[in-house]
Automatic annotation (TrEMBL):
Residues 7-163 form the N-acetyltransferase domain. The lineage of its organism: Bacteria, Bacillati, Actinomycetota, Actinomycetes, Micromonosporales. This is GNAT family N-acetyltransferase. The keyword Transmembrane helix does not apply. One of its GO terms (molecular function) is N-acetyltransferase activity. The keyword Hydrolase does not apply. Belongs to the acetyltransferase family. It comes from the Bacteria. Keywords: Acyltransferase, Transferase.
Length: 173
């Protein structure tokens, strides 16, 4: 029996986008929310490779340079630490490649970027039933139970945005 080939990690390229979009949709299916995922190839291409990209990506590739996993991330900023950090939006490794070290290498790549650039944090959220919790604990990641996530979207987001427009429309404003 041969050992599984450890994927190589590299920055995402424009030609990787269709595979990454497909894996994002696979992730949405895994997280039981396929109807909530609307990402297109054009959207991801623009976000990663447009005029002023604010999203970054790395892929795990097999021996034929085919993406088999990815990490999409962006910079955040800690006002308390006074420096940037990385927020990992999504990490996914295709089931056939799990156990090869691809996920660990993707996270290690982001950790290395943090260390090289003087960033103090690498952060992400995980759905509470994901079995990756044990893996994350094994690499020293800490669950942040004292912080509660909030989200404003849909009608609530539009309603709140309308308040600023209403104020701006007042006379003498």
């Amino acid at each position: 029996m041969t050992s599984p080939v450890i994927p190589t990690i590299r920055p995402a390229r424009p030609e990787d986008v269709p595979a990454v979009v497909a894996m994002v949709h696979e992730l949405a299916e895994y997280e039981r929310a396929p109807d909530e995922c609307h990402l297109t190839t054009d959207q991801l291409t623009s976000a990663l490779f447009g005029a002023a990209p604010a999203l970054f990506g790395h892929v795990a590739v097999d021996e034929q340079d085919v993406p088999v996993g990815f990490a999409l991330w962006f910079l955040n900023f800690s006002t308390w630490a006074g420096v940037h950090g990385i927020y990992l939006e999504d990490l996914y490794v295709r089931p056939a490649v799990r156990g090869t070290g691809a996920g660990r290498l993707l996270l290690a790549t982001l950790a290395d970027i943090c260390v090289q650039r003087g960033y103090r944090r690498l952060e992400w959220w995980m759905i509470d039933w994901n079995p990756a919790a044990g893996f994350y604990a094994s690499i020293g990641a800490e669950q942040m139970s004292e912080w509660v996530p909030y989200r404003l979207s849909g009608d609530a987001l539009n309603d709140l945005a309308a308040q600023v427009r209403a104020v701006a429309a007042r006379p003498n404003h």
